[in-house]
Amino acid sequence: MKRKAAFFALAIILFGLNVCVWLFVSNRTNKSTPVPSEQSPSDSILKRDIIVSYENTGLALGNPVVYLGSDTAKSFKFFSRFTDKCLVFRFSGNYCDECIDLIIADLKKYLPDYDKNDRIILLGSELSARVKDGYYGKKVLSYTSTTGLGLPLEKSFIPFLFIVDKGKVSEMVFMPMRSQPDLTKEYLQYINYKYFKPN
Hints:
Blueprint: H1 2-29, H2 41-56, E1 65-68, E2 75-77, E3 86-92, H3 97-110, E4 120-125, H4 129-135, E5 141-143, E6 160-164, E7 171-174, H5 181-196
Parallel strand pairs: 3-4, 4-5
Antiparallel strand pairs: 1-2, 1-5, 3-6, 6-7
């Protein structure tokens, strides 16, 4: 019963997001005189995040060389260890530390096997060795060069989550927002149910 309720809630949220994207696209193609917006700042941020997520979903990804923790001597290709779909949390040490900690706390809260699940991947850049080696409850993958996966969103320091597998295509890109914790909860609960719960 809880699963049906969760799927129903997620379906409503996804429907609402699709309506927002449709409204945004239809407003951009409408050449009439613009009407002053009465949206709150968080609404415009949500709209922007939906568009950015859409622009980063379904893209072919590069296969950069990475290393685990601070062990740079044992590097490998990012996709060489994939056998199934994985959740990747991509973040930068140049972003708000408190914000990263909150997202990690949500990962631990809504993905109960976070610390043991090899299919939950932390992919960071600009991090200290202390952080790379287990500060977040597991080791962080880091790039050996500045070449990343090739997602446009990587050029910013904004943390984001996405699903990927050996097919090397980004899926379900999501940017957690402090102002919308319920969206993060729904996203992670859906990911947990769809990809990590045994059938």
